[in-house]
Amino acid sequence: MRTAFLALLLLNLAYFAWAHWVDAPRGAVPGVSASRLPELHLVSEVPAGSAAAASQTKAVEADAQACFSVGPFGDVDNSARAAALLKAKGFDPRQRAESAEASEGWWVFVAGLKTDAEIDRALVSLERGGIKDALVMPATADSGRRLSLGLFSERSRADRRAQSIRALGLNAEVAERKLPGTVYWVDLAPLPGMATVPIQDLFAEGVSSRIAVQTCPPAVHLPNAQATAAGVSQPDSPSVPAVNADGQKLATATPATAH
After folding, report:
1. CA geometry: angle at 105 spanning 245 and 173, to 5°?
2. Which CATH number does 59-102+180-224 carry?
3. Which residues partner with 215 through β-bridges?
């Protein structure tokens, strides 16, 4: 019994020595200094002035990138006049020319006349109604013969003319007449605080009433624009024969001039 007690005591002493001297505890893993970590802030903790400044910076950057085109103008004189008016209001306008289908106005005509007898009857009806400026147009494959009854600069006037002709029993139609040509635009950036370009004053000064404001094409870069009112770059525009409302070539006879 005594021998077993001594053996157990020696075993406990050996374990105690191994635990304290042989298996030394590992050093603690060094932690990252809290001073090196970025501070986190709630949105409510951000100063109002800082948020407002950031918002204002973004607004300024957006204004600097904005570009609007005013037009289209049918001739360079009108675009130059609009550019001068906008420049007087503090804008920095740049003129630009491009090839496009230019509107000549609104054409009033009677179509579907298949024989000379039908044409004569239509002309007699028009003359009795006080309309004596009808012009016989060349025949087309799809619409037969036509009577041209005027080219008007405003749709409302063309509609009134067509209505008076329909009252005579004739089927008058109205179509916008377009021809290949050159149109002109005025490109500019909005003034600070403006979301668009005001053009009401242009209308008041007699500039074309058909113009509108739209976003500049992707190819337009205001800092590189060199066009001026004195010299606008002209696109190549070959001579193209006149066409009717259906895009077909007209003969020597043409619609009456705009009213």
Report:
1. 50
2. 3.30.70
3. 68
Residues of the chain with CATH 3.30.70.1070: 103-178
> H or E element: which one contains 2?
helix 2-17
Question: What Rg, from alpha-carbon coordinates, does the chain have?
Answer: 41
Q: What is the DSSP secondary-structure string of 102-130? A: EEEEEEEEEEEE-SHHHHHHHHHHHHHTT
Burial of 2 (0-12, 13-18, 19+ CB in 10 A): exposed
Strands 94-113 and 135-140: unpaired
Residue 229 CA to residue 81 CA, distance in Å, equals 8
* pTM over cut 0.90: no
Whether residue 109 contacts residue 149, with contact meaning beta carbons closer than 8 Å, is answered with: yes
Q: Are 113 and 122 in contact (CB under 8 A)?
A: yes
Residue 157 amino acid letter: R
What is the per-residue pLDDT across 83-130, written as a single tens digit (0 to 9) for each?
999 999 999 999 999 998 877 899 999 998 989 999 999 999 999 999
- Token pair for 141: 């494959």
CATH class of the 103-178 domain in this structure: alpha beta
Q: What value, to the nearest 5°, has the Cα angle with vertex 100 and ends 95 and 103?
A: 100
Q: DSSP class of residue 26?
A: P
Q: What is the mean pLDDT of residues 12-31?
A: 57
Is the Cβ–Cβ distance between 147 and 113 less than 8 Å? yes
List all residues 6 or more positions away from 188 whose beta carbon is below 8 Å from its beta carbon: 67, 68, 70, 86, 91, 92, 93, 94, 197, 222
Report the distance separating Cα 75 and Cα 101, nearest Å: 13
Work out the angle at residue 226's Cα, subtended by the Cα atoms of residues 220 and 228, and round it to the nearest 5 degrees. 110
